[in-house]
């Protein structure tokens, strides 16, 4: 239904959603450059998931994957329909913003770490590790730059609170989830969207249908012990799960 509406609206020939941050737009531009032909639903969903998990989204409304889709499809269309001169102008713009830096950013994003902020116990995507030190207690710490945040938000994080980025659970992985498992859960409130560690308390298994997993997972947030019933699409697993 969403997609239908979307298609009708892209015909209006203007971007549908203008709430993306600069780093989100840069990321989408890179994706566009890299996979001009093969934009898939998977890519849109992954991008949206990545944006919503990044620190830059904190305090902003969550991005819907359909918004990413429409943005990318619109950009793709306008790339194609614009004349060569304009494409060159876009290229030059990208190149003048320091190609080597851009390449580096791609490599860094492939590392894909997340770190837990001691401010709110939520996990944020790491853009880069700036340096490291040993705390006076002897604890090894890294200075983390979070994706979407500036230098003023850099934070010293104990290395045990840094880990490879969690992966959204697929419908087919539902049966792997057991009560007692620790997962990462996306929590969307009016003023923020964050990822927290949660423990699975109970699972109401339901028959999967065309929409995928319909099971209901009762989870408990580790940072405040609050409980909530959530769907699979809000849960992420550890890479080695
Ligand atoms: Zn299920």
Describe the structure.
The protein is α+β, with helices and mostly antiparallel strands and 241 residues long. The chain has three domains: 2-107, no CATH class; 112-164, OB fold (Dihydrolipoamide Acetyltransferase, E2P); 167-237, SH3 type barrels. Helices cover 32% and strands 27% of the residues. It is built from six helices and eleven strands. It has helices spanning 2-10, 22-34, 41-53, 65-81, 84-96, 99-111, and strands spanning 113-116, 123-134, 140-146, 155-158, 162-164, 167-168, 182-188, 193-204, 216-221, 227-230, 235-237. Strands 6-11-7-8-9-10 form a six-stranded antiparallel β-sheet. The chain has a five-stranded antiparallel β-sheet with strand order 4-3-2-1-5, with helices on one face. Helix 1 (2-10) packs parallel to helix 4 and helix 3 (41-53) packs across helix 4 (65-81). The two termini are 33 Å apart. Mean pLDDT is 78; it is low at 1-16 and 80-109. Bound molecules: zinc ion. Zinc ion (ZN) binds at residues 174, 208, 213, 215, 232.
In a few lines, what is going on in this structure?
The protein is built from 6 helices and 11 strands. It has 241 residues and is of the alpha+beta class. The chain has 3 domains: 106 residues, no CATH class; 53 residues, Beta Barrel (OB fold (Dihydrolipoamide Acetyltransferase, E2P)); 71 residues, Roll (SH3 type barrels).
Task: Describe the protein's topology.
Layout: H1 2-10, H2 22-34, H3 41-53, H4 65-81, H5 84-96, H6 99-111, E1 113-116, E2 123-134, E3 140-146, E4 155-158, E5 162-164, E6 167-168, E7 182-188, E8 193-204, E9 216-221, E10 227-230, E11 235-237
Antiparallel strand pairs: 1-2, 1-5, 2-3, 3-4, 6-11, 7-8, 7-11, 8-9, 9-10
């Amino acid at each position: 239904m969403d997609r239908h509406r979307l298609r009708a609206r892209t015909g209006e020939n203007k971007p549908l959603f203008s709430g993306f941050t600069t780093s989100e737009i840069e990321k989408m531009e890179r994706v566009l450059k890299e996979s001009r032909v093969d934009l898939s639903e998977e890519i849109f969903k992954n991008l949206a998931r990545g944006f919503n998990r990044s620190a830059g989204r904190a305090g902003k409304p969550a991005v819907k994957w359909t918004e990413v889709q429409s943005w990318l499809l619109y950009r793709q269309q306008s790339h194609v329909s614009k004349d060569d001169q304009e494409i060159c102008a876009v290229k030059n713009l990208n190149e003048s913003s320091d190609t080597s830096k851009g390449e580096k950013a791609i490599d860094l994003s492939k590392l894909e770490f997340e770190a837990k902020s001691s401010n709110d116990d939520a996990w944020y995507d790491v853009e880069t590790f700036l340096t490291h030190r040993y705390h006076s207690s002897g604890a090894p710490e890294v200075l983390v730059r979070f994706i979407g945040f500036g230098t003023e938000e850099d934070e010293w994080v104990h290395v045990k609170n840094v880990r490879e980025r969690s992966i959204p659970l697929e419908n087919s992985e539902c049966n792997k989830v057991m009560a007692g498992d620790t997962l990462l859960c996306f929590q969307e409130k009016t003023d923020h969207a964050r990822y927290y560690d949660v423990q699975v308390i109970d699972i109401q298994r339901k028959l999967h249908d065309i929409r995928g997993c319909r099971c209901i997972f009762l989870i408990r947030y580790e940072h405040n012990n609050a409980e909530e019933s959530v769907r699979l699409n809000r849960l992420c697993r550890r890479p080695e799960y």
